[in-house]
Amino acid sequence: MLVLLVEDNRLLAKNIIHYLELKGIECDYAESIMQADSAVFSRIFDAIILDLNLPDGDGLEACKRWKDQCVISPVIMLTARSGLQDKLSGFEVGADDYLIKPFAMPELVARLKVIAERRPAPKLLKIGELEFDFAGHRVHRLGEELLLSRTGWKILSLLARRSPETVEREEVERLLWPDCLPDSDSLRSHMHLLRKIVDKPYKHHYLHTVRGIGLCLKVAACEA
Amino acid sequence: MLVLLVEDNRLLAKNIIHYLELKGIECDYAESIMQADSAVFSRIFDAIILDLNLPDGDGLEACKRWKDQCVISPVIMLTARSGLQDKLSGFEVGADDYLIKPFAMPELVARLKVIAERRPAPKLLKIGELEFDFAGHRVHRLGEELLLSRTGWKILSLLARRSPETVEREEVERLLWPDCLPDSDSLRSHMHLLRKIVDKPYKHHYLHTVRGIGLCLKVAACEA
DNA sequence: GTCAAATCACGTCAAAATCACGTCAAGAAG
DNA sequence: CTTCTTGACGTGATTTTGACGTGATTTGAC
Prior knowledge:
The structure is a homodimer.
Chain A: E1 2-6, H1 10-22, E2 26-30, H2 33-40, E3 47-51, E4 53-54, E5 57-58, H3 59-68, E6 75-79, H4 84-92, E7 97-100, H5 105-117, E8 124-127, E9 130-133, E10 138-141, E11 144-146, H6 150-162, E12 166-168, H7 169-176, H8 186-198, E13 207-210, E14 214-217
Parallel strand pairs in A: 1-2, 1-3, 3-6, 6-7
Antiparallel strand pairs in A: 4-5, 8-9, 9-10, 10-11, 12-14, 13-14
Helix pairs in contact in A: 6-8
The structure holds a DNA duplex.
Pfam families (chains A, B): Response_reg (PF00072), Trans_reg_C (PF00486)
Domain Response regulatory (chains A, B): 2-116
GO cellular component, one term (chains A, B): protein-DNA complex
């Protein structure tokens, strides 16, 4: 089991990580929302432990954003906010469980196990004629499956999660080549390949280039 | 949504039922374990609210029995027993959530909604011609038992639990070698062995490779 | 201000390099 | 003995690279 711990209190974090590892649970660690974002979108966790008071923003917002963007991993909120309204806000933005500080480690582990083993049924995201299944890593257009390469899927799913926002070129490149951006501009080729599969065979085009900015995936105005 | 409320305090029960119905949640009612048993085995509930102190026995035992007998409805325990050990016992026997009395109705509803949407972790599972017995660590295909190695079982059961999701290669490897991922790619060999037993002797193939992503086990489109 | 040249961002394509995977067999570990 | 690991090989898919064309945008001299 692999969990992501998002917690800015380093001492507490260290204790949690240590305890989880004793219990055979592997643990990635983020101490800010920014760090958490890049972790969440780069791999799938069996669960995310989310503190709500973070230096660079509110955990509630982050959780809502993740759920809106079809992040599958279940989220357990870990916080000192103990009011009923606080809890309800947590569940409102998609939390799978809510544990109040101070808490007992064994209870955290018990709840982690429950939410990790019983995942929510995968939801499908529809954008026009496109239908995304993030859990199955598949896309369909008008019922037909689009056979994408690994890179093609990565690009398209990022754009879908952000749709109809425009995603900056650089961000797409960071997703594809996290270590070092390529000297040449091979993203162009990938977009070409992607378009050939996603848009070319169909009437309407969903992949758009915003010159000088980046890329976006959205329903064409004329179609809507 | 249909829930089963198991609670011997009639006044509290009436309040809960009333509140749930306000929220559009249908509610069956049992005031003893005996009544609960007959309800649980006669229909499938989206969730079961289970009080632990009942006139004819302990809720913990009932819960354990249900889970042992593959009742898939999630159970939320509702009790005055607030000790850590009580909670752990609850999760131990398969509870999906644990709420301490006194509680706020809106929180109960929020938690009900979360657990009702989750996919259950069954002990028996059928996927096409395959039949899994997770407790007994056995698989049958068309009635014949498949004799798997320890590793083979681990891989296949993970894929089955997640079916029809695609499980990332890395996650399968983490399951097999929790400590350190192997330098060489021996998962390929295991898949080869596994396919020889699971798929090769039969017409339809269930094990699929999603190139660049991972593996999945599912009923082929053409078969359905 | 305006016009043309230079520059830039992008689409297109194909060849080459690389990678992921299925297959198998021999050896190691239990 | 069975099971697991390793490594080698072949194949086809994927990714990268670089070259070329086009139209937009900037630049700078007039």
